[in-house]
Amino acid sequence: MEDCTICNRIELAKKGDNPYLIEEFENSYFVVGDHQLYRGYSLLLLKEHVTELHQLPEKMFLGLMEELRVAGQAIEKTFMPDKMNYSCLGNSDPHVHWHLIPRYKRDGDWGELPWKKIRLEDKHLMDGMKAREMANQIRMNMEHPRMVRSPSHTSELRILSG
Questions:
Q1: Which CATH architecture has domain 5-144?
Q2: Which of 28, 100, 108, 111 has its CA at 20 to 30 Å from residue 153's CA atom?
Q3: What is the Cα–Cα distance from 49 to 57, expressed in whole angstroms?
Q4: Are residues 45 and 6 in contact, defined by beta-carbon separation less than 8 angstroms?
Q5: How many angstroms separate the first and last alpha carbons of the chain?
């Protein structure tokens, strides 16, 4: 879909031009978030342009949930947050995607909704180089699902142990 922000990001990932890419899964792309107010903030972007979770076929939904679990574990292992928040809203970008938000008691807004400060903190915006470094750091801590696409951005599938 031409005017969809998430579809545009997915196209960059397919071309190998998205430094924010952590991993390409069967159903989704796992990417570093644009800002890092909460260190390790990432997103899981569904490959297909679907606007509602309940519209997904069961197999795709279950696969996406497994990818979400693997992504959350990698963030937890990499950054050791006190709590992981997960959110799938779609109000601003009507394309199924999950926000993975590591929360830390030391942040000063522990127990509050993360959305209050996220958009106000431009000083935490990531550039491509920092995003690529963070993506590599998270990738090293991933427990891969059985079948994922190669992080070299090829369409070749590989089987991973774990």
A1: 2-Layer Sandwich (3.30)
A2: 100
A3: 13
A4: yes
A5: 35
